[in-house]
Amino acid sequence: MPSSNWIVGSVYPKDEGLLPVRELIWRFVEFLLVACVIVVAAIWVLTRYTMRPLVQLTQHLTSYTATEERIAALSGDSGSGEVHALRSAFNRLTARLHAREDTLVETMQKYQLITDNSTDLISKHSPDGTITYASPVSAGILGVEPGELIGHSLCEFVHPEDFDIVRTAVKEAIQANALPTIIYRARHADQHYVWFETTLRLMTGATGEQTQRILCISRDISDRKRMEERLHDMVRTDHLTALPNRVLLDERFANGLAQAQREGSLLAMLMIDIDRFKNINDTLGHGMGDALLKLVGSALKSCIRECDTLARWGGDEFVLLLPGLQDSRVALAVAQRCLATLKKTFVVNGQGLHITASIGLSLSPDSSAGAEMLLQNADTAMYKAKARGGDCLVLYSPDMSEGARGRLSMENALFHAIERAELLLHYQPLISAKTGRLAGVEALLRWQHPEYGLVSPGQFIPIAEETGLIDAIGEWVLRRACTQMNDWYSRGLPKIPVSINLSSRQFRQECLATTIKKVLKDTNFDPQNLELELTESFLMDDIPRSKSILAELKSLGVTIALDDFGTGYSSLSYLKGFQLDTLKIDRTFIAELMTSEANASIVRATIGLAKGLRLKTVAEGVETRAQANFLVHQGCDVLQGFLFAQPMEPEAFLSFANASHTYLLSRSPREEIEKVR
How would you class 373 by CB atoms within 10 Å of its CB: exposed for 0-12, middle for 13-18, buried for 19 or more? Predict the structure, then answer.
C-alpha cells in the first residue's frame, strides 16, 4: 500500500489466471483464419473478375489457330480501365488486319486473274532451271498442264541447238543481275517445236532483297517467226518469177566466193538479156511480157546445176552465178545451153513467141574478185553481145572496161557540156549543082572536150539519147543555129537555108513542134529558112504518129529533108505519104559512084524518083570532081562534101561564104546541062 509502504501478496492459480488470455488468443486465431479465408476468396473472386476479358481474348485467339477463318472482333463491353483499353486496341487491330487482308486478297486476285488470262507463259525457276511454278497458259502453248511442268527442268523442253542460249541467259540473270531476252525453240507435247521469246530476271523477296529464284516471262512468237521467214523469202525472191533477186544473189555470191577461196576454184557470172523484149511488151502488152519472163526463168533453170543460182536482175535481165568451177569451159557450155534453150518456141496464152538472148560472161580472175566487179564485167560483155546484134555470147576481156569507163566519163562530162560552153556548131556548105554557088548550109554539132579534144557526134549523140540529154542539146543546137544565121544575114550573107539534124528521141518528143515554134519566135527566125533532117528509121517506127508529127512541123513553115536515103526502107509508098521536101542521097552510094555500076544505078534511080515526086535532091559525101560531074549530069540539085569544104567554124564559114561568088563546079558539065535545057 503506498501509504503504508506495505506490499500485499495474493496467491491465484496460474491456469485460472491465464485462461482469459488463452481464450483471447484462440479467438484472434479464429478471426485471423476467417479473415484469411475471406481475403483469399475475395482475391479469387477479384482475380476471376479481372482476368475474365484476358481469358476470353486467349480463348478467342486459340479458337482461330486451327482454322482458316478470319479473326473476329471481341464482342461485349465488359471490363474497364486497361482491360477495356486492351479490348478496344485488339478490336482496332483486328479491323486493320481485316482491311489489309481484304486489300491483299483483292491484289492477289487481280494478279491471279492476270496470270491466269495472260497469253504469255509465266514461270518460276530455281537456279538450276527446275520449274517451281507455271501459269495455266502452258496447256495451250506447250500442251502440258502447269502441274505437270513443276519439278521438270527448263532444258528438258529446249531444242538441243538452243541449249547454250538458255544456259547463258540463266547464268547472266543470276550472276550479272541482268534482264536477258532470248529467242529459242521449246518442244510441244506433240513433239513439234514452238518459238519462244523469254525475258529472265531474279525475283525479289518480301523485304526487297534479291533471291536466287528466276522469273521467266515467255511469249509464243511462232507466228512472228513464220512471218519473218516469209518476209525474209520475199525480200530475197523476185515476186514475178519466184527466182532469187539481187539480195539473195549477193548472199549466194559470198558463199561461192568462200568456196572458191577454200578450193581454189573459179566463179563465173553470166548476164542474160532478152533481145528486143520491149517490142513484146509494146505489142502484146505487159501481161504477155510477164508471162514470158516466167517461162524464160523456168527454161533457164533447166540449164543449170543444183548448186548454181539463177536470179532475176530486173526487167528482162537474168544473172546466173556458177560457183565451184574447175574449168572455164563449163561456164561456156552452160551459156551456150542457155542460148539454145531460149531459141525454142515459148507458148503464151496460146501464142507462140520466138526470142533470142545476149549473154555476157565474166570469170573471176582469182578468189579476191568482188560481186560488183564480176557483175560489171558481165554487163559490159553483155552489151558487147547486144552491139553484135544479139543472140550470141561474149566473154569479158579487160580491154572492154577501158571503153566502158571512157564512155562513163564522157557521159558524166556531157551533163555539164552546155553550162561549160563546150558545145559548138560547125557549118558545112551546100553547093547548088545548077549555079555552082552556095545554096545552103548544114549545122553540125561538135563537142570541145577539155581532155578528149574535139569529139564527133557519133561518139556522144548516142550517149545523149540514152541519158535524155539530147532534149536540152537539141534545143541548144536549134537556138544557136538560128541565132548564128540571123547574125550572118545581118552581115550580108544571102538568106540561104540552114539544115539541122533531129535525133530519134527528139522526133518522138510530144512537144517537138512547140519547142521549135518557141525557138523560132524567140530568135525571130524565118521558118522557111529552116530545114529539119530526119532518117528513114525514125519515120518507119510508127508511121501514123510520124505523119502527125510531120504535119505539125510543116504547119510551122519549115521544110523536111529525108537524110541517108537508100540505107533504110526506101519505100515508094511511104515517100508518097510523108510530107517531104528533100531527099539526101547517102554518102555510101556516092563513095563508090565511079567504081560500082550498081551504086551508079541506085543514084540515077533515086534522082529520077525525087524528080517524079518533085523533091529536091542533095548528094552527101562528094569528094571528087568526077563524082560531082556525074551528079550534075544526072540532075542532082545540091552537092555536099569535102570537094567543096569540110565542116568549118563560124568565122571560117563566113569567109568561105563571102568568097563563094566564084564557081565551085567545072563549067563544062553545067554548060552542057544548060544547053540541054
Answer: middle
pLDDT in tens, 552-575: 999 999 999 988 776 655 555 666
Domains (range + CATH), the chain: 115-227 (3.30.450.20), 239-396 (3.30.70.270), 413-676 (3.20.20.450)
**Sequence-separated (6 or more) residues with CB below 8 Å from residue 261:** 367
Segments of the chain scoring below 70 in pLDDT: 1-4, 6, 8-12, 17, 60-61, 64-69, 74-83, 105, 107-117, 206-208, 365-369, 401-406, 566-575, 660-677
Task: Using alpha carbons, list the distances in angstroms from residue 208 to 67, 107, 204, 370, 607.
Answer: 30, 18, 5, 58, 109
pLDDT tens digit sequence for 61-106 = 677 666 666 777 766 665 566 667 777 777 788 778 777 777 776 7
Whole-number Å distance between alpha carbons of 476 and 515: 11
Kindly report the length of the chain.
677
Which pTM value belongs to this model? 0.54
Of the candidates 315, 322, 329, the residue with the CA atom closest to the CA atom of residue 260: 322
CB 319, CB 311: distance < 8 Å: yes
Q: What are phi and psi of 43, to 5 degrees?
A: -60, -40
